[in-house]
Design brief:
The chain is an all-alpha fold. It has a domain of 62 residues. It has 5 helices and no strands. Helix 2 runs antiparallel to helix 3 and helix 2 crosses helix 4.
Length: 107
Amino acid sequence: MAFLQTLQSSLLRYNSPVKSNRDEYFSCARDLVLAQFQLADQELTQRLWQHVADRNLDVDRIIHLMYRCRFHDDDETLKEADDAFIAHGRQQTSHASDMTVGVFEHC
């Protein structure tokens, strides 16, 4: 019985890696907006961008969240901006694969 309760509580607390990943992007974007735009703290901004690089996060995605979202404290607007970025990225990837050129096709 104790095992079943432990299993149920573990399943109820499961966090999706996608959500966790998205939360990390949101947190980085919020921190960078605060440091770069509100505090104008160059040293803190550099450290935060270094954190982004160390975590191997997509810089374009963070920049998109910083500049395309007006309310960085609202998860829903960040999610909408992030979904738009991801959808746009998938479109570009599919178009790029359609436009591959062979070695002599450009001649």
